[in-house]
Design goal:
alpha/beta; eight-stranded mixed beta sheet; seven-stranded mixed beta sheet; 20 helices; 24 strands; about 45% helix; rod-shaped
Length: about 625
């Protein structure tokens, strides 16, 4: 399977994963993502910071001060009637009582409250009773209202109160984090649909008709941005009392400010410690339920709620599919730090866009997108690392294999510049040739395995001398070799290193031959030629290339081996090599010459010197052994 096909398969699997995660969560599964989304929502809300709410609602709180004055909770109906009566006198738009008036109390108190409720525009709270702690009940009928939370029954105010007011269901949806993230706008039982308390209050305050469309609610000609189940997403303005709040005690004290009531929506609710309903929010660990409800009312009336409708869900689905594909594509595009940095930049950009959208009124899901992106990206990155490790091992093996055929310096140069010597280069270099004598006749008489061991030992000597002196073996010629000094780049000491290599070869091979059995060693000899001058370095071959050198210098170095044999010597050195190496002689060697020699294939003569050990073969062998 080619790499392109592998990437296409990875992208297709990533898209399927993202689509599956989104569909599973939208279908009510993967509930753990709700808790993650709640946490991420808290963070985004805190990033947005405290906002000044539209000044439309006043909360009249039945708080600890009121309870201390009255001595009991719930507040006696007669006292509640006094609170309502005082508020009505200040002419509010609507009075919403976020208290469940479902039980009878003193007859006089109930009668007084009932009469008071008849004096102004009132909305009373009711509660929906569900069959379990969860409100996510499977729909029992078709149509747009099938998605509504289905209650067993509604807990309504006493008829004496309900006859003088409108009624709305006050339940909120808390989610797995315990923090209310939305307020259902509509509730149903088997045979009845009721409006929520905030929607009932907003409808009465705006005096606009309510229309239930298949995918939205309309207050007059304004669309209410609800979720797919007609729930209103809410986002908090700040900690408790951010929405204007006054204590009901100010009514009993006669200090209530008319401006806090007149032409406003007034919500009466409990904030008694231990007596009312409290919820954790991003800004406050204990926010009274009446303020949660008032937040929803403000969103409905001001139209400043956060949008999480079907269009946002489409954007969520696209993000869950496309973002993971983009990240995997970037990692596949560059299997390096660049790809990782590009993927990280995309994730940061997505997080910034998501947060920006949230702070500007659009609630894009973060948890589902993360669940869709993180696993495939982690798996693909892990596979990439594994494949990279395998590739590194493969390249290391190839490098080790290449090292067996190329000098380390040339190997490193080829790794940096694959086009090295793709065009011939003319330069100065030193050439050393060595060849075994008598090997051909010996190969006819001994076992092939023994012959191979002899040849391997000989090559090992050559390889060690070349590597130690920084030369490059351009090729083993059966029982001989050519060593080049000057690649990958010409150096000032090329000639000196070539001279040292030639002398080391002389000693090493002489010692090796002396160590062989006499029946073998007595048949073998060797010859070495070394020269310095201009060469043409190039790469030869098509599918199997090798680096070599050609030119007169190479020919002369090779022919010097013949000159050495004709003069009963083993090492012949050109005068050009000695001059370039600035050779002044050595105390342990004897240099004889010069000889003006004619070499085959070249007009003119070459000045040749011959080198041997001063102490003879035995002492030279000991020196060579010490060098080894």
């Amino acid at each position: 399977m080619t790499r392109r096909v592998q990437i296409l398969v990875a992208l297709a699997l990533t898209a399927l994963w993202g689509a599956g995660i989104f569909a599973a969560h939208a279908g009510g599964h993967l509930r753990f993502l709700d808790r993650l989304e709640a946490t991420l929502t808290d963070w985004r809300t805190q990033v947005r910071g405290v906002q000044r709410p539209p000044d439309l609602v006043t909360i009249v709180a039945i708080d600890d001060t009121v309870v201390k004055r009255g001595g009991s909770y719930p507040l006696p109906r007669a006292d509640l009637a006094r609170v309502v009566d005082t508020i009505v006198q200040f002419k509010p738009k609507v009075v919403a009582i976020d208290l469940l008036l479902v039980d009878r109390s003193a007859a006089i108190g109930d009668a007084t409250l009932a009469n008071t409720l008849a004096t102004g525009p009132m909305v009373l709270a009711a509660a929906a009773i569900f069959p379990s702690a969860s409100e996510n009940v499977a729909p029992g009928s078709a149509g747009p209202l099938a998605v509504l939370p289905q209650a067993e029954r509604f807990l309504l105010p006493l008829p004496a109160f309900a006859d003088h007011a409108e009624v709305g269901i006050v339940n909120v949806a808390t989610g797995q984090s315990g923090s209310p993230l939305s307020v259902p706008m509509l509730f149903r039982t088997r045979d009845k649909v009721e409006l929520s308390f905030p929607l009932r209050v907003a409808t009465r305050a705006l005096d606009k008709p309510l229309t239930v469309a298949p995918d939205q609610l309309m207050l007059g000609d304004r669309a209410v941005p609800t979720d797919s189940d007609f729930a209103l997403p809410i986002t908090y303005y700040g900690p408790r009392r951010t929405i204007r709040t006054v204590s009901a005690q100010s009514i009993f004290d006669g200090t209530l400010n008319r401006a806090a009531i007149e032409n406003r929506i007034v919500v009466i609710g409990a904030s008694v410690a231990g007596g009312g309903d409290f919820y954790p929010t991003p800004f406050d660990s204990l926010m009274p339920g009446v303020e949660v409800v008032s937040t929803a009312i403000t969103h409905l009336v001001a139209g400043d709620g956060i949008v999480r409708d079907h269009r946002v869900h489409i954007a969520d689905a696209l993000a869950a599919i496309l973002l993971p594909m983009l990240l995997v594509g970037l990692l596949a595009w560059r299997r390096s730090a660049l790809g990782i940095m590009a993927a990280a930049a995309v994730m940061i950009a997505w997080a910034g866009l998501n947060t920006y959208a949230f702070t500007h009124g659009v609630w894009l899901n973060a948890a589902t997108t993360l669940a869709a992106a993180v696993p495939p990206v982690a798996i693909f990155a892990g596979v990439q690392l594994w494949a990279g490790g395998r590739r590194t091992q493969y390249l290391a093996a190839k490098s080790r294999s290449l090292a067996q055929f190329q000098a380390p310096a040339v190997q490193e140069w080829l790794a940096r510049d694959p086009n090295f010597l793709s065009k011939p280069v003319r330069q100065d270099a030193a050439i050393v040739f060595i060849d075994l004598s008598g090997f051909t006749s010996l190969s006819e008489r001994i076992d092939p395995d023994a012959l191979q061991e002899i040849l391997q030992a000989f090559h090992a000597r050559i390889d060690k001398a070349a590597v130690d002196c920084g030369g490059m073996i351009t090729g083993f010629l059966g029982d001989g070799a050519m060593i080049l000094f000057g690649l990958p780049a010409a150096m000032p000491d090329d000639a000196a290193r070539a001279l040292k290599c030639a002398i080391d070869l002389h000693r090493g091979v002489e010692h090796w031959i002396a160590s062989l059995p006499s029946a073998i060693g007595g048949q073998l000899g060797f010859k070495i030629g070394a020269h310095f001058g201009e060469i043409v370095a190039s790469r030869l071959g098509e599918t199997h290339q090798h680096i070599t050198a050609t030119g007169d210098t190479v020919n002369v170095a090779s022919r010097l081996m013949e000159v050495a044999v004709r003069n009963d010597a083993r090492l012949a050195l050109s005068n050009t090599l000695l001059d370039t190496a600035d050779f002044q002689g050595a105390p342990d060697g004897v240099l004889s010459g010069p000889l003006l020699a004619q070499v085959r294939g070249r007009s003119g003569v070459v000045t040749v010197w011959f080198w041997r050990d001063r102490d003879g073969p035995k002492q030279a062998a000991a020196k060579a052994e010490a060098i080894d």
